[in-house]
Amino acid sequence: MKFESDIEFLGRDGDGIARTGEGVRLFVPGALPGERIVAESLDARSARLVDIVRPSPDRVIPPCSLFGTCGGCAIQHLSLPAALDWKTGLVVHALEQAGFDSIPQPKSVQSTPGARRRIDLALRRTHDGIRIGLHARRGDVVDLSDCPVLDPALFALIAALRPLVLSLAAFRREGDALINLLDSGPDLLLATDAPLDATDRAKLAAFARQHAVPRIAWRRTGSTDTPETATQTATIRHDLSGIAVAPPPGAFLQPSRDGEAAIVASVLDGLPGRLNRKDVVIELYAGCGTLSFALARHARVLAYEGHPDAVATLKRATTGTRVTAEQRDLNRQPVMARQIADARVLVLDPPYAGAGAQMEQIVSGRPERIIYVSCNPQALGRDAADLCAAGYRLDRVTVVDQFLWSTEIEAVCVFTAPRAPRRR
């Protein structure tokens, strides 16, 4: 059934929200707020864009030839300034829903095209070759023949991967390739559906030498085991706030340099004006130390991380710094309120699902200041609601758009307790 509708706003997945003549809301991919469109309903939730009667002034020509097919980007038809405004609005809305009625004017930062330094690719054998790329929305793998998001060095490596992967006996039908562009060069974690043989390992070593890839690690597709290093030609090195670390294969890093810099700067800007060498900052979900070493310039840092390889990386780099790292599954064994109460500042960068069981201890510990780094507005809203109910004030909000043209959003929020906690 075709219908005509105005688009009032975008949903969380970047789809325009339309209303049928009966008032039913439907998601319309490709439609933008302010537009008058003709759509055709597909099911009880979605519709297909048929025509644009009145286009939005924020509509632009998508910069990628694969837009609408590849699932990596959802809003390339929306201008970058408008996309940043939309993402900022989603963060503000989540905080309003959490109960904060006085929200400071957000600061917003946006990465540039061609800055993405991390990508997780799917590999699929076809009857005539191989597809290397991202999944279509609720669909199969789309071959990545174009990508204005990726750092050109990463994109060039994808083309070189095609003949290599096709030649491997370990690659039968499917696999994955995760690439981090470290300071030492591209770091490749390859997963295949059969084990590597000696010939495969020799091919990987030759590829690493030819394309200046310092390390290629491997594991079986679907496995959560620690990857094995298939070949290494140079030392692994990556700089985090002036400290050299050696991230494990497939390590989580912020996807762009400018995005990482914006997050670190926002966290440091959120620190109290006066910190001394005896003050303690507790950092939760520390990863390999993206924030740890920057924070250590201002106070002692107790950094907690659950992933064993990440915390091992962090520990190896702490010599001579004011960072103490400890492995802890914060959902099963949260840092307790009595320890949190002794910290001058609590910094947390939880996973997509939010801080979970750790929030109860945070609220009970009532630290003077909480700096929350979020990658999911919905989880941020849930956790912030606990802080609002405990009387915390929201002092600063920074939105960082380093996942250009996608619906992913980063935010840094600074919360302050209404009165200083009693020191123990």
Automatic annotation (TrEMBL):
<comment type="similarity">
    <text>Belongs to the class I-like SAM-binding methyltransferase superfamily. RNA M5U methyltransferase family.</text>
</comment>
<keyword id="KW-0479">Metal-binding</keyword>
<feature type="active site" description="Nucleophile">
    <location>
        <position position="375"/>
    </location>
</feature>
<dbReference type="InterPro" id="IPR002792">
    <property type="entry name" value="TRAM_dom"/>
</dbReference>
<dbReference type="InterPro" id="IPR012340">
    <property type="entry name" value="NA-bd_OB-fold"/>
</dbReference>
<feature type="binding site">
    <location>
        <position position="305"/>
    </location>
    <ligand>
        <name>S-adenosyl-L-methionine</name>
    </ligand>
</feature>
<dbReference type="GO" id="GO:0070041">
    <property type="term" value="F:rRNA (uridine-C5-)-methyltransferase activity"/>
</dbReference>
<dbReference type="InterPro" id="IPR029063">
    <property type="entry name" value="SAM-dependent_MTases_sf"/>
</dbReference>
<feature type="binding site">
    <location>
        <position position="254"/>
    </location>
    <ligand>
        <name>S-adenosyl-L-methionine</name>
    </ligand>
</feature>
<keyword id="KW-0949">S-adenosyl-L-methionine</keyword>
<feature type="binding site">
    <location>
        <position position="285"/>
    </location>
    <ligand>
        <name>S-adenosyl-L-methionine</name>
    </ligand>
</feature>
<dbReference type="Pfam" id="PF05958">
    <property type="entry name" value="tRNA_U5-meth_tr"/>
</dbReference>
<keyword id="KW-0411">Iron-sulfur</keyword>
<keyword id="KW-0408">Iron</keyword>
<keyword id="KW-0004">4Fe-4S</keyword>
<feature type="domain" description="TRAM">
    <location>
        <begin position="1"/>
        <end position="51"/>
    </location>
</feature>
<dbReference type="InterPro" id="IPR010280">
    <property type="entry name" value="U5_MeTrfase_fam"/>
</dbReference>
<dbReference type="GO" id="GO:0051539">
    <property type="term" value="F:4 iron, 4 sulfur cluster binding"/>
</dbReference>
<protein>
    <submittedName>
        <fullName>Class I SAM-dependent RNA methyltransferase</fullName>
    </submittedName>
</protein>
<dbReference type="GO" id="GO:0070475">
    <property type="term" value="P:rRNA base methylation"/>
</dbReference>
<keyword id="KW-0489">Methyltransferase</keyword>
<keyword id="KW-0808">Transferase</keyword>
<feature type="binding site">
    <location>
        <position position="349"/>
    </location>
    <ligand>
        <name>S-adenosyl-L-methionine</name>
    </ligand>
</feature>
